[in-house]
Specification:
The structure is a single chain. With 180 residues, this protein is mainly β. The chain has no helices and 8 strands. The chain has strands at 24-36, 42-55, 60-80, 83-105, 108-121, 135-147, 150-161, 178-179. Strands 1-2-3-4-5-6-7-8 form an 8-stranded antiparallel beta sheet, with no helix packed on it. The protein is elongated. The two termini are 16 Å apart.
Amino acid sequence: FNPIYMQGGFLPTGIHNPLEDKKANVGVSLGTSFSTNFNKGYAFTTFAKPEIRYKLSKRFNIRGGLSIANSEYANTLVYSEGGLGTYSGNITQGILYVSGDYLISPKVVLTGTAYKEFSIDHSGSDNLFKPGYDGKGIMMNLRISPRENVFIDIGAEYYQGNNPFRQGRYGHYSPNPFIW
């Protein structure tokens, strides 16, 4: 789960953009997700993401924030140093990021993000992620809105770190930092 993948500062045509009214904007996103492997395993994640946005021009704004996500795992299949295993426990992650959104046209937005991912709590004697998820990366995304409420996202990410879900040090694939 990566809450910085959420939509950038410009909204598609037909939806009010609060940045049109102010130069600066502050907001908080809160959310939760649940997933299961249908074999008595599940993950429950809750996050908070305060963000500051600043409009530099009609077409360009910058934003930055901190995302904190807490995940509770129960009998969940995960990758670790030892390969595939099950894990039950709690992990709290943080992501500090800065982004820029460029409005190419009312229906096309280019977004770039640089971030630093870090572990807040990964303690516990049975935690498979003892080194934590510490990493860093950059993302580029092109969002096209051919019609109202229809979005096509095309993006690429360069990641360097040891998050097992992002083909880092624990990944069972080549340690290629490019995530597609």
